[in-house]
Structures are given as structure tokens and as C-alpha cells.
Amino acid sequence: MSATPRSLPAHVLVVDDDPVIRELLRTLLDLEGIAYSEAKDGPSALARMRATRPDLVLLDVMMPGMDGFEVCARLRADPALRGIGVILLTARASVFDRERGEAVGADAYLTKPFSPLELFATMQRIPERA
User: Fold this and answer.
1) What are phi and psi of 19, to 5 degrees?
2) Which is it for strands 56-60 and 11-15: parallel, antiparallel or unpaired?
3) Are the beta carbons of 90 and 47 closer than 8 angstroms?
4) pLDDT tens readout for residues 71-128
5) Contacts 24+ apart (CB under 8 A), 77-84
6) How many CB atoms lie within 10 A of CB 46?
7) What total of structural domains would you count in the chain?
8) 49 phi/psi in degrees, rounded to 5
9) Is residue 77 part of a domain?
10) Does 3 map to a domain?
11) What's the confidence (pLDDT) of residue 3?
12) Is there a domain that residue 33 lies in?
């Protein structure tokens, strides 16, 4: 089955240890009428994904304990979760980090600061997975 581009997702999980970033993303998603849930670390993100099955995850890379790369790798390894789209949001802009994001299965990699237009355009480019 081929992947098709999506419109903006109905439900997004925001995962970031920084409450200011979570608030910013909440505001942006509210403006677009997108439902969201939140997690502040990797373990709670995986639990939230299993409970709510979001369409897309906006995932910070640099978090204490389990970083975003590990969360993404675990998501892709879990048959119940692997179909969820993932955008890594991070201040880490090196080629090595981008390649690592691709290697763990992220659909996109945006560096902070990002523009709302860039975020929503990227969200629409993430293909729906089976």
C-alpha cells in the first residue's frame, strides 16, 4: 500500500521536557483546531502513544533519561505504534544528528527555532502509514 500525503493530523502528541515549548506548540495546534496530548519525557510519551494512538508525534530530541532518538526507535519497533508519524524537533542541527534521526525512523527533522508555517507544511508532508 502506498503512502499518501495527509492533511493536518487530527491528534498530535507533543513530547518535550521544556514547558515553554509545550505551551508554544499547544498554542499553535489550538489555532489550527488540532487536538493534542502532551508528555514531558520518553517513558510517558510511549505510554501516552499506547493510550491515545495519535496521528503524529512532535518529539524533542534532547530530554533527560530516554532521548527522542530512543523514543522514536522504540516506537518504530512496536507493531502497535510504528504507523504513527514522527517529527523530531530539536536545537541539534548537525548532519550526524539528522542522519541519526533518519536511521531511527523519523519522518522529518526540524531545528529550533522553527516557523509555524514550516511546522504545518512539514506536518502535511508526513505520509500516512498503514
Assistant:
1) -65, -25
2) parallel
3) no
4) 999 999 999 999 999 999 998 888 999 999 999 999 999 998 999 999 999 999 987 6
5) 78/46, 80/50, 81/46, 81/49, 81/50, 81/53, 82/129, 83/128, 83/129, 83/130, 84/49, 84/53, 84/54, 84/55, 84/56, 84/57, 84/129
6) 19
7) 1
8) -60, -45
9) yes
10) no
11) 46
12) yes
Count Cβ atoms within 10 A of the Cβ of residue 73 and give its class: 0-12 exposed, 13-18 middle, 19 or more buried.
middle
CATH number, position 19? 3.40.50.2300
In angstroms, rounded to a whole number, what is the distance separating the alpha carbons of residues 80 and 64? 25
* Domain-located, residue 24: yes
The pTM of the full predicted model, rounded to 2 decimals, is 0.91
- Measured CA to CA in angstroms, residue 85 lies from 6, 8, 19, 49, 88 at distances of 10, 12, 22, 11, 10
Domain that holds residue 19: 11-123
Do 41 and 69 meet the contact criterion of CB atoms below 8 Å apart? Answer: no
